[in-house]
Write a structure and sequence with these properties.
Helix content is 54%, strand content 14%. With 186 residues, the protein is α/β, with parallel strands linked by helices. The protein is built from 9 helices and 5 strands. Helix 1 packs across helix 9 and helix 2 packs across helix 3 (46-56). Strands 2-3-1-4-5 form a 5-stranded parallel β-sheet, with helices on both faces. It has helices spanning 15-26, 33-42, 46-56, 63-74, 92-100, 117-131, 138-152, 154-160, 174-182; strands spanning 4-8, 29-32, 83-86, 107-114, 165-169. The two termini are 18 Å apart. The structure holds adenosine monophosphate. Adenosine monophosphate is lined by residues 11, 33-34, 37, 54-55, 58-61, 66, 87-88, 90, 94, 135, 144. Adenosine monophosphate binds next to helix 2 and helix 3.
Length: 186
């Protein structure tokens, strides 16, 4: 049985930064569906070709494609001790896909990153300057926030009903935020 911990929050909330640190410290796999899709785009795969324009506009890649990619990834050896899911699930069908595999991959906790929107836009725009991410533009950010509110935020309720939600204040020092998350893994 490999437990999954979900990092959920709006774009720019720092999920990736924290997921990398937690995964390394606790010997878990770090699974970022955004990174996986960006790899597909760099490698010019079929999936990458489909995903590119959707991602640049800030929309979501279709559930079927993302679920298939995620489930395949969970089959890798490095997921045996468990994994941090960074950016998945983002929709109710994606969350339900995890229910289908819960005997093997049960969801342990859902960390909800809380940051206010003004701070987020600043963070994403400054990230775009250095990362060169083609979806870190003002237009795309607007769409990504709308989608977060519409499709992803309802998952907080879904997991609240299962008593799995932990809210994390994601503003402030990276190390302090890290310690607040890490204490739940000890
Ligand atoms: P991220 O790196 O998590 O911010 O994701 C970047 C982009 O990849 C998103 O705006 C979506 O277009 C796409 N993406 C990543 N994860 C998912 C997912 N779970 N479902 C659908 N699209 C996704």
């Amino acid at each position: 049985m490999s437990e999954l911990n979900i990092f959920l929050g709006p774009p720019g909330a720092g999920k990736g930064t924290q997921a990398i640190k937690i995964a390394e410290e606790f010997g878990l796999a770090h699974i970022s569906t955004g990174d996986m899709l960006r790899n597909h785009i760099s490698n010019r795969t079929e999936l990458g070709k489909i995903a590119k324009s959707v991602m640049d506009e800030g929309h979501l890649v279709s559930d079927d494609l993302v679920i298939k990619m995620l489930v395949e990834r969970l089959g890798s050896d490095d997921c045996k001790n468990g994994a941090i899911l960074d950016g998945f699930p983002r929709t109710l069908p994606q969350a339900k896909s995890l229910e289908d595999i819960k005997n093997e991959f049960p969801v342990d906790k859902v960390f909800v990153f809380e940051v206010d929107e003004k701070e987020l836009v600043q963070r994403i725009l400054s990230r775009g300057e250095t990362s060169g991410r083609s979806d870190d533009t003002v237009e795309s950010i607007k769409v990504r926030f709308e989608i977060y509110t519409q499709d992803t935020e309802p998952l907080i309720d879904f997991y609240n009903k299962q008593d799995k939600v932990l809210k994390i204040n994601a503003v402030g020092e990276i190390d302090l935020i890290y310690r607040n998350i890490a204490k739940h893994f000890n």
